[in-house]
Amino acid sequence: MSATVEEITSKAFDYVVIGGGTAGLTVAARLAEDPSITVAVLEAGLERLDDPVINIPGQFGKHFGDPKYDWDFHTVPQEHANGREVPWPRGKVLGGSSAINFYVWDHPPKQDIDAWEKLGNPGWNWERFSKSLKKTEGFTPPTDENAARYKQVFNPDAHGTSGPLKTSFPGFVMAGDVPFQETVLNSGVKIAKDPMNGDPIGTWMAPVTLDETTHKRSYAATAFYQPNANKPNFRVLCGALVHRIATTGSDDDTVEAKAVEFEHGGVIYTVSVKKEVVVSAGSLKSPQILELSGIGDKRVLGPLGIQTVIDLPGVGSNMQEHIYSSVIFELDPELGHETLDRLADNDYVTAQLALHAVGKGFLRIGLSGFTFLPFSTITSPERAREFVGRQRQRIEERQKSGSLPPGLKEQYELQLGKFERDEGGECELICFPGYLGMGAPGAGKPYMSILLSFNHLFGRGTVHATSTDPHVQPDIDPHYFEEKLDLDVMVETVKFMRRLAELEPFKSFFVKEVTPGPACTTDKEIEDFVKNSLKTTYHTTSTLSMLPRELNGAVDPNLRMYGTKNIRVADLSIVPLHVAAHTQSTAYAIGEQAADIILGRIPPVK
User: How large is the angle between the packed helices 381-401 and 408-421, nearest 10 degrees?
Assistant: First the structure.
């Protein structure tokens, strides 16, 4: 169904979208709704619409490290995480990471989105964000039986019902999710008031991007590519690795994209651009493509021998990410728990595939139980004030010494404010129905992992090209734990989880804690555990931040690259300050708003 290279190179297109991922396919399909507009999408991965490894739920992480699906990025060695090179999986397939993620569908807190507007981006607020998500979403409510059994509570006003991306509550939920939620409630935490409508603080059950009618994954390729694939004005070329954007002009708002150079089948081609290039290759690839095009920090480009077209230090900087470590519990095998660990049994898999084909069984599972809390709940208000006070002092000292990069003061003020007002969801607990973390599961044993995530790190990373060869992956350096508070929060969250494990009914649900295990007790031992078990939550943002240029911004509120006439960015890299949520919905919201901006439905910011 995807285009041929001849269809792409034989004519000029109004819009060329680099990246057929979550945001890229969204913006491309919305532009192509106007039959007079021609759109070409260049995607490095292949189309895998009929691939059961993508479509059938429950295969969490099966794609990771497999070049058919994954870019298989790794960080550089992390000095403050025991020298580890941390894997960073990202989708290299039509649909991008929406094809290989854990298909969580949640929304950020209202205040996290409103913070974007406070950082100099008029119109980028919760009201517009939530409207865009309702346009994307086609939500199906749970059955009355499942709603009661699995505590699947929802506000109809928070969901869209007619959008192309199908969402629902999972049809199968692990037995541990409800007792864990009850335990969190017994600790004094409340049910989240309106989690899909801007107030997710507390504990709740989340929907997923599964189509209730087929019990298969709904993702950007099924939602935005498949229904539009036969439109004559919409062409998607898979297996197309973009090398660079060819431009004319110089760095005074006159740089203009004329074509995009890409490789397909080992041959280099170009596609001509009539109106605009939209860069949607994701937070890790978009900066690299721009740097190879001469747009970036001249201190990065010069040593590579790349002529600087626009000197823009914000390209590849201000990287923000979520992290997690897992506390893993062994369950009683005599109770017949159905967990992902049973997928190691080939006979069980065969039986479940047969059940899935008729809309039944375990392979309708999704991550369901989530808890978002302020740091003061995880530790204590007094200790939280102590930790955050030290962080504020450190930031003030860096500012006085001149070592704080432009734009960070403004971001940090908003972050600190959330901590000090106890209103954020910076600390997250995720119920995972199986063994996920350090070590290896015992044969035939069931497990439940509680993933402990930190969503508002103070550390900032970078991603930069290291070669003019587009096949060479960029250097990814998240600078894990250079800010001590980031490590402190993780340690306190492990201790909080252990306190929860002493409460009923969860206390009676598991046999023993496996990881980190009873030998890990002191703060120093927990610190080492966190450093050794740390993983990315696959939510990288902000490497082309939507900030004023003097504050290290790369794009303006119209998503246009500074110094250019017709290059925009539409992916998670534009996020100026990270959100306390899984990022799938945010990527779709950015794609929707990008299309509205380009089409003039959202008036331009002057």
Answer: 170
Q: Is 59 exposed, middle or buried (0-12, 13-18, 19+ CB in 10 A)?
A: middle
Pair 602, 127: CB distance under 8 Å: no
Model pLDDT for residues 256-307, shown as the tens digit of each residue: 999 999 999 999 999 999 999 999 999 999 999 999 999 999 999 999 999 9
Nearest to 218 by CA among 170, 161, 166, 142: 166
Reading the block at residue 176, the tokens are 């541990």
Instruction: Rounding to the nearest 10 degrees, give the CA dihedral for residues 162, 165, 171, 174.
Output: -140
Q: What is the pLDDT of residues 77-91, one digit of tens each?
A: 999 999 999 999 999
Give the span between the Cα atoms of 448 and 280, in whole angstroms.
36
As a whole number of angstroms, the distance between CA 562 and CA 105 comes to 32
Nearest 5°: the CA angle 316, 322, 327 is 150
Residues 6+ apart with CB under 8 A from 443: 344
Half-sphere exposure of 65 (CA within 13 A, CB side): 5
Check: CB of residue 426 under 8 Å from CB of residue 416: no
Q: How far apart are CA 530 and CA 56, in angstroms?
A: 32
